[in-house]
Design a protein that fits this description.
Structural class: alpha+beta
Number of domains: 2
Largest sheet: 7 strands, mixed
CATH class of the largest domain: Alpha Beta
Distance between the termini: 31 Å
CATH topology of the largest domain: Maf protein
Order of helices and strands: EHEHEHEEEEHHEEEHEEEEH
Length: 345
């Protein structure tokens, strides 16, 4: 296979790095952080007056220094009762996270209106094309009166920012939950689609894995909250082809990533379904392969999958399937039943 293009996530914050990596993990890029660079590049001075301006400044700085396509962010906590303070200066009001949250809570002592927004600007800079793509995301919430103790995302202002819709503090959310509602998740979704449209083929071949076990077929409940028409709908394991990858390699890799199983490919079925994605201007060729499990632990990717289940063949027809998967499945089902019988799957 051809080596993947590198995408530098230009942040020194480990929490942010993990969030962004999980969100963009399905893209055909090698995601690297600043710690993966051979040289230690000093951080630039953030001199702009907006989060978007500072994001652009940092993305261009690291992109030009390294020659690698770079993604940078700048964000802030904007408190209504404090006229948007600390805003773009959020990271500079104290030396460490604990002192930053304390400074905000001290400022808000005895203030009843505790509404605030997390706002982020994200900039993607391609040093080869000299192009910049910028997005913004915002999430409304409430500032707590004291620090939430615990959780796995307890960096920055996360321990004091309560998201009313989720009835949770940022700090106590899983990465999956946080990426589905956060300001950064909203901005990253636009970045993700930009990268897919600009750096992935418009005509996409998607081998799909019809994994059979004891006569039943595997299906995944999709995790895609930023595309409501696809979210919480059933689909077969599979994904877009990467450069230099053949269909069999793709099928084995995608099934392992999404379903946690090692598979043996039994047979490609005759029916290939073509689906046009009007909103994103590409055409998808769904190529079905019958497969069986030969290993793996069945631990699926929670970045893409909410649930995984084996269904009776006809039972799956009654489920809410992604896109045109139901048309595909209805067409191929008679041949699939013959293959299962022929190979005693």
């Amino acid at each position: 296979m051809i080596e993947k293009r590198k995408l530098l996530i230009a942040t020194s914050n480990e929490g942010k790095l993990e969030e962004i990596k999980q969100f963009l993990d399905t893209l055909p890029f090698e995601l690297i952080g600043l710690q993966d660079l051979k040289e230690n590049i000093p951080e630039p001075e953030e001199t702009e007056l907006t989060v978007e301006g500072n994001a652009i400044l940092k993305a261009k700085y690291y992109g030009e220094k390294t020659g690698i396509m770079s993604l940078a962010d700048d964000g802030g906590l904007f408190v209504d009762a404090l006229d948007g303070w600390p805003g773009v200066k959020s990271a500079r009001i104290a030396d460490i996270d604990e002192n930053r949250t304390k400074t905000v809570l001290d400022k808000m002592n005895n203030i009843e209106n505790r509404k605030a927004s997390f706002i982020v600007g994200l900039a993607l800079y391609d040093p080869d094309k000299k192009t910049v793509f910028v997005t913004e995301g915002e999430t409304r919430g409430t500032i707590l009166k004291e620090v939430f103790v615990g959780g796995t995302n307890n960096y920055g202002f996360n321990p004091i920012f309560f998201v009313d819709d989720m009835k949770k503090v940022y700090a106590e959310m899983s990465l999956q939950e946080k990426n589905s509602v956060s300001h950064r998740g909203k901005a990253l979704n636009k970045i993700k689609h930009y990268l897919q449209n600009q750096y992935r083929a418009r005509d996409i071949v998607v081998p799909i894995s019809l994994v059979i076990k004891d006569g039943k077929i595997l299906s995944n409940l999709r995790n895609d909250p930023h595309r409501p028409e696809y979210h919480k709908k059933w689909e077969f394991p599979g994904g877009g082809m990467e450069i230099g990858e053949n269909m069999q390699e793709n099928l084995i890799r995608e099934t392992k990533e999404e379903a946690g199983y090692d598979i043996e490919i039994i047979k490609m079925l005759q029916y290939i379904h073509v689906e046009y994605q009007k909103d994103y201007n590409y055409q998808v060729y769904l190529v079905p392969y019958v497969c069986k499990i030969v290993g793996g632990d069945g631990v699926y990717s929670d970045a893409e999958v909410l649930e995984m289940e084996f269904f009776e063949l006809d039972e799956l027809l009654n489920k809410d399937l992604v896109g045109e998967n139901k048309k595909l499945y209805t067409k191929l089902l008679p041949e699939l039943k013959e293959v299962i019988k022929e190979y005693a799957l």
